[in-house]
């Protein structure tokens, strides 16, 4: 109970109300002490009226008047004359004089606290102004023990009342907060537990219903999170199924390509100059396809294999990619250009770098050919003190907003109908394995530019 939100709220509310009551209690006790002494002055003044009516009163009546007023003597000052109106023997000397005509709140609180802490019975002189302007002043002498007892009794009653008010207030606040806040929070927790049992079930996504603004905002945020998580789980399930299918296909395709590789070895021995020129490229393409199948199988078991980093001549990799793409272009009016400094080298895995550049150029080539307009794809390279930069620019139609939003997400970033969107996702993963990155620099109706960055630092190896 005490560890629950409701229990802690109940305890804290009780404590805070008690603190507030104590802050009221201190000045209340001071005011009670002042009123107590003023009351004794008024009663003493009333008792002295008897003397004003009859100059001579017997000792018994005088003693009774002083006893009823709870004072030892009464002194009146009228017309600048100080007159002892009533008097009786005092048990001890006067220890303190209290002037009620000019007392600040601080002094009243200080004196009240000191009186509560003083247990000895003392005789004090109290001076005040008579009621209804009946003279200049009135002073009495009185004992402090009855006043202290009355103050303690009043304080205990105030504290008891404060405790009752605190408990009632805390209980009412407890009920209100339990209904308005704790119950909706428990409802959200219950929804979360229900959803956690089967997160792939979209029917378990919470429907916001709370009337408290903050709780409803929490429910709406939870709904958004659950919706995204359910979609991600379904996508991962599809990816797992696709991965299994691709692994099976890659296994059989690798065997087929291995057989084709044996045939290309014989083609290389042909004396036909065209065949001799094209055979090495065919062998290279089939070899890359075999390696890709093997990598896909490895990915299906764990993850994309790490890169084997060496210093690679970028021009050689780029020429292989451009030659392959030129065959796909055929007679279409699309120019492929390379602006790479002679002898330009980067630290990378040659096969993985080939796949990344090939994916980017293939995407650009397909976008331009689908548009039907002539175009150009240009690859350039430069270096800085800490990195190599490879820029790929095209004059295609640009990327739509949806593709830009999910550019490197599998199955979401494709622009071409029937595309999977895996190319850029795979390329980004390969570059992260190099310690580098792929960025979309800009895209518009005039064209698109991607930037591949590879670090020069030893930490990239």
UniProtKB/TrEMBL annotation:
Q: Does the keyword Lipid metabolism apply?
A: no
Molecular function per GO: phosphorelay sensor kinase activity
Chloroplast as a keyword of this entry, yes or no, is: no
- Record protein name field: histidine kinase
Can you tell me where the transmembrane regions are?
6-30, 158-181
Q: What class of enzyme is it?
A: transferase
Give the EC number: 2.7.13.3
Histidine kinase domain boundaries:
248-458
The family database entries (Gene3D superfamilies) matched by this protein are listed as: 1.10.287.130, Histidine kinase-like ATPase, C-terminal domain
InterPro entries associated with the record: HATPase_C_sf, HATPase_dom, His_kinase_dom, HisK_dim/P_dom, HisK_dim/P_sf, Sensor_HK_Regulatory, Sig_transdc_His_kin-like_C
Provide the catalytic activity annotation: ATP + protein L-histidine = ADP + protein N-phospho-L-histidine
The record ties this protein, via PROSITE patterns, to:
HIS_KIN
Query: Which terms are listed as keywords in the entry?
Result: Coiled coil, Kinase, Membrane, Phosphoprotein, Transferase, Transmembrane, Transmembrane helix, Two-component regulatory system
| Stretches of the chain forming a coiled coil according to its record | 215-242
């Amino acid at each position: 109970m005490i560890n629950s939100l409701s229990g802690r709220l109940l305890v804290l509310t009780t404590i805070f109300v008690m603190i507030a009551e104590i802050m009221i209690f201190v000045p209340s006790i001071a005011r009670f002490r002042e009123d107590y002494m003023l009351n004794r002055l008024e009663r003493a003044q009333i008792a002295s009226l008897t003397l004003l009516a009859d100059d001579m009163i017997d000792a018994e009546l005088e003693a009774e008047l002083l006893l009823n007023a709870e004072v030892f003597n009464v002194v009146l000052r009228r017309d600048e004359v100080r007159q002892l109106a009533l008097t009786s023997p005092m048990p001890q000397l006067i220890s303190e004089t209290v002037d009620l005509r000019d007392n600040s709140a601080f002094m009243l609180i200080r004196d009240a606290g000191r009186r509560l802490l003083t247990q000895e019975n003392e005789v004090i002189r109290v001076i005040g102004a008579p009621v209804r302007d009946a003279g200049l002043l009135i002073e009495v002498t009185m004992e402090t023990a009855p006043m202290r007892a009355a103050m303690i009794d009043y304080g205990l009653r105030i504290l008891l009342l404060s405790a009752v008010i605190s408990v009632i207030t805390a209980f009412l606040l407890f009920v209100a907060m339990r209904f308005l806040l704790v119950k909706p929070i428990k409802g959200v927790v219950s929804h979360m537990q229900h959803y956690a049992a089967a997160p792939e079930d979209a029917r378990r996504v919470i429907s916001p219903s709370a009337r408290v603004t903050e709780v409803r905002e929490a429910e709406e945020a939870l709904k958004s999170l659950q919706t995204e998580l359910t979609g991600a789980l379904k996508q991962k399930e599809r990816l797992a199924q696709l991965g299994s299918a691709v692994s099976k296909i890659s296994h059989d395709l690798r065997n087929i390509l291995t057989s084709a590789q044996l045939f290309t070895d014989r083609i290389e021995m042909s004396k036909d100059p065209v065949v001799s020129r094209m055979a090495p490229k065919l062998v290279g393409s089939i070899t890359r396809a075999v390696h890709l199948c093997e990598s896909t199988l490895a990915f299906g078991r764990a993850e994309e294999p790490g890169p084997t980093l060496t210093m690679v001549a970028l021009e050689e990799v780029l020429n292989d990619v451009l030659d392959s793409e030129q065959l796909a272009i055929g007679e279409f009016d699309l120019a492929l250009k390379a602006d790479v400094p002679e002898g330009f080298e980067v630290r990378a895995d040659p096969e993985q770098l080939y796949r990344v550049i090939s994916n980017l150029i293939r995407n650009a080539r397909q976008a331009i050919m689908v548009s039907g307009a002539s175009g150009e794809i240009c690859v350039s390279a430069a270096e800085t003190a800490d990195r190599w930069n490879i820029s790929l620019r095209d004059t295609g139609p640009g990327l739509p907003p949806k593709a830009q939003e999910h550019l490197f997400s599998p199955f979401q970033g494709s622009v071409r109908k029937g595309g999977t969107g895996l190319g850029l996702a795979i390329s980004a993963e390969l570059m992260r394995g190099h310690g580098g990155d792929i960025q979309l620099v800009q895209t518009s109706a005039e064209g698109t530019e991607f930037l591949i960055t590879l670090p020069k630092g030893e930490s990239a190896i």
